[in-house]
Amino acid sequence: MAKLWQITRVPLKITFNKAKEILHRKFVGDIEENFIQKFYFTQQSFESFGRLRSGYFQIFNDEILYEKRELLEFLGGQFLEHNFNLLGTGWINRNHSLSVEEIINKLPSFFQAKARGIFEVLFSGNYKPINFWNDPKSGYIWEPQFYRSLKITLGKDVKQPWELGRMQHLPVLAYCYHLARKEGNPNSQRFVDEFENEILDFVATNPVGYSVQWVSSMDVSIRLANWLFAFDLFVNLGTTFREKFSQIFIQSIYEHIYFIIENLEWSGGLRGNHYFANIVSLIFAGFYLPESELSISILAFAINELISETLFQFLPDGGNFEASTYYHIQVAEMLLLALYILNFFQKESLVNLSKYLPKKRHLKIGTRFIKPASFSVDLHHIRLAFPKEFLERIYKIVKFTLKMRKSNEEIDSFGDNDSGFFIRPYYFFENFNWNGTLYENVLKRNFVYHLIETLSENGGVRNQFILKKNSERCFNLPKQEIVLFPKLFAFDDFGLYIVKSVDYELSLRCGDIGQQGKGGHSHNDQLSFTLCVRGVDFFVDPGLFCYTCSEVERNKYRSAHSHNTLVPAGEEQNLWQCGDVENLFWIWKHRTRANVIRKADNSIIMEHYAFKRPHRRIVHFNFQSITFEDRLEIDDLKIIYFHLHPEVLIEVKPDGFTLRRAGILLELKTPNCKFEIQSYEYSPQYGVKIPAQRILLLSTQKQFIWSIDLV
Predict the structure, then answer these.
(1) DSSP summary character for residue 412
(2) String of b and e for 352-377 (b: at least 16 CB within 10 Å)?
(3) Are 565 and 137 in contact (CB under 8 A)?
(4) 203 in helix, strand or coil?
(5) What does the pLDDT look like over 131-171, one tens digit per residue?
(6) pLDDT of the residue at 369
(7) What are the C-alpha distances in Å from 673 to residues 490, 676, 705?
């Protein structure tokens, strides 16, 4: 049951619904016994369902692969050795230290014989099982148990095994196979063998419902989608898989689907990106399964939920309700990917869907009932007919997503950034090198923009790589706007304000904490700003280092003192509690209540109320200068923070500072007050820290006027 203070954070209806769900789960009997009966002793063989469908993704543009040839050779070599760099580990080996028999002995007794049989199907040779159970940073291992008995505790990062278990590197094996085969490399088959072996390895060592890989239905959903995506690429390259592999693979696909259906992360209380991932994975499933009443029923349910969840989880201005720009991108990518897949409806399937819908007074999947159907089938044009409100919201979502993208193709990271993807066709294609190690640049989300281009009536196919364009089923979507003069784009519902000009992009945060008052993915970043000049970042958000692995680090990065705003010494904006994992994803006391007082063509006035008196920030912007005025009518020592990109060089001047990066100079002109230059750790992706510098202005003044001038 939620703590009393959590009940006060969210609407009463949500608390009531959550309480009902908890009570229902408490009285459903022996959950594990029921689960075993359903998945292990009474399940039917899935071979009778037939082969999976394919053809939704395929490699159209070899030039991109040849451009990335050196990178792909490196990645392919790493993956064949089971070396991965996930969430900041660096390239480390993730093999089990146990023998196959020792691994099997840790599995549930009723599964051990099947695990031995699967291991016998693996290609012989030097293949070593991957350890899908451990966090390599802490060394902790979640040994196989019933998924509802496994605990997530502070000090251990459960995202480490989950990220590995998403298996989003598998498409790289298909790319490497394609290149090697084109070049006549006799070893090209090893990439197909590796694909088969890794999936067999996973199925053998992670019995459904009995490892850490089944704790989060979102991660089960993402794994399902990535298996199908990589499978599709291989099939469209003409790959023939072994019969025994295909049987095990198809059975596991169905087990994933039924597990998701039985463990949907929907809640009448709080829900978010996890449930969205469940829905999109079911849309994938509906298209890859052979045509049947099962596939049609899954699609009818999932399409309906896609519509309702889009309207629930995206605000009227198009921003995601979780108050994080990164989570917006992640969920927007899921939505656009679902719309892309839905473009592949064939007439026969649409006819079957149109016959199915009128038969059902309610659509039921697992324990979830919904009324049919907010969409209809247009057989004349052979497509789905969506509600007007849904199409209008998609337009706003795309507009928000386009405005977030800066001239350097990155997005500004406000709020949490867990470096997550749904599928990853461009795995490590965008990267950076730190201390001789290659990391992925997760702030570049080119795939979501290529989806927009493919789905847009006005979009071409300049970046087509694996996506097919169907001009007859495209959407009316906004285009990226070219801005010369400074122009303010306001997203009041989300609380993001973006000034774009030919020379700079300024982003300002002022708004709600998200998630209907929970605030779990927002930071104490009210009135903070970031600035990119001529495609070069200068003032940045420090990011997010981790979640459960360190409560101290989690709270440090979401603190107001880690953002480009004004804070009284020793004070904080919104407050949180410590001591357990759940508190990492709640705001205890929402004090800021931030709002915009006034917007104009060349200025904005923002305010929040976390301190003894309101903090007001007034921003004026023109071609070459941005002026800030901070007001806080208290006598306490105040600090204004300026967090700089790691490559920015600082030179102290009599009236402030000169900031230099990539041949570009800025003048930060500050009032006459005490200052400090400190080191801090910039986190451009989850689990990675890079040394950088920040400037602190310290004074008891009640008014500060400072400016940033482009030189």
Answers:
(1) -
(2) bbeebbeeeeebebeeeebebbbbeb
(3) no
(4) helix
(5) 999 999 999 999 999 999 999 999 999 999 999 999 999 99
(6) 78
(7) 33, 10, 11
